[in-house]
Amino acid sequence: MLVPLYEAVYEHLEVGSGTRLLGLGCGSGLALLMAATRGAQVTGVDTDHARVDLARERLLPDPAAAGPGPYAHRGSRPETRLLYGTPDAAADPALPAYNLVTAFQPVGCTAGDSDGLVPALTAAVPMAERGSAVVLAGWGPPERCATTAVFRVAGRLTERLRGHGAWRPARRDDLEEVAARAGLRPDGSGRVSCPFGYADTDSAVRGLLSTGLFDAAVAAGDQATVEKEITEALHPHVRHDGTVWMPNVFRYLVARIP
């Protein structure tokens, strides 16, 4: 769903063969794969083992090409590294410093969702060259994101939790606040259309649950109730052929390491 966001950022920053990219919270590796196809040297780090395993399938499909350690894997492109753990795992004094750091996991939708990002950025900064770009991503204005109405379900169902994990509408300065807390200097931003499209309602429910934004709602009640509420909220976005289509706008911020 976020491919247009990745494309816009890479085009804006002219990502190519001279790029040494560190992806924080790299997830299943699609953004890294897109950068690698542009010629970039990519390193991804994430604490989710299942998603890193999927990233390895995408970028390092040959298991025999795995590196000797439990964390680093190298394949036909020796510059590709996919690591379990915190950003510290990406430090390697034998390699050149990074010149681009990305954190594409959107912030600004749950209370406290940037609490882990700021320390991650702080840890990554010493591994990158001065003046390097750091990219943060977040949801656009709620009135321009059709999915906002669906995510309100998460907020309603977790009302009694109040606090970490509870959904909230994105704010205009969310990304700037994260950059300031991490000691970064803002250097431009942009907005990108990222519609969410699904083959049917069941696919949409599964896809939305996979974002993690409903985890607190499931914990507060039960999955069947959450799925029922999501399905009802999706009704306005179901088209005549049964597909689900929700226009959204995402925002990115380019900051610089001083």
Produce a short descriptive summary.
With 258 residues, the protein is of the alpha/beta class.
Features:
258 residues, Rossmann fold
Commentary on this structure:
- The chain has 258 residues and is α/β, with parallel strands linked by helices.
- The chain has a domain of 179 residues: 3-Layer(aba) Sandwich (Rossmann fold).
- A seven-stranded mixed sheet has the order 3-2-1-4-5-9-6, sandwiched between helices.
- β2, α3 and β3 form a beta-alpha-beta unit.
- α1 packs across α2, α5 runs antiparallel to α9 and α7 packs across α9.
- The protein is globular, with a radius of gyration of 19 Å.
- Pfam families: Methyltransf_11 (PF08241).
- This is Methyltransferase type 11.
- GO terms for molecular function: S-adenosylmethionine-dependent methyltransferase activity.
- It comes from Streptomyces thermolilacinus SPC6.
- Keywords: Methyltransferase, Transferase.
Q: Which architecture of the domain at 3-142 and 167-196 and 248-256 would the CATH scheme give at its second level?
A: 3-Layer(aba) Sandwich
Shape: globular
Number of helices: 9
What is the CATH C-level name of the domain at 3-142 and 167-196 and 248-256? Alpha Beta
| Percentage of residues in helical conformation | 25-40%
Helix-and-strand structural type:
alpha/beta
Query: Main β-sheet, in a few words?
Result: 7 strands, mixed
Within the largest sheet, what's the order of strands?
3-2-1-4-5-9-6
Q: First CA to last CA: what distance? A: 32 Å
- The CATH topology of the domain at 3-142 and 167-196 and 248-256 corresponds to Rossmann fold
Radius of gyration: 19 Å
Give the SSE string: HEHEHEEHEHHEEHHHEE
Question: CATH superfamily of the domain at 3-142 and 167-196 and 248-256, called what?
Answer: Vaccinia Virus protein VP39
Low-confidence stretches: 65-78
Strand content: 15-25%
Number of strands: 9
Mean pLDDT: 87
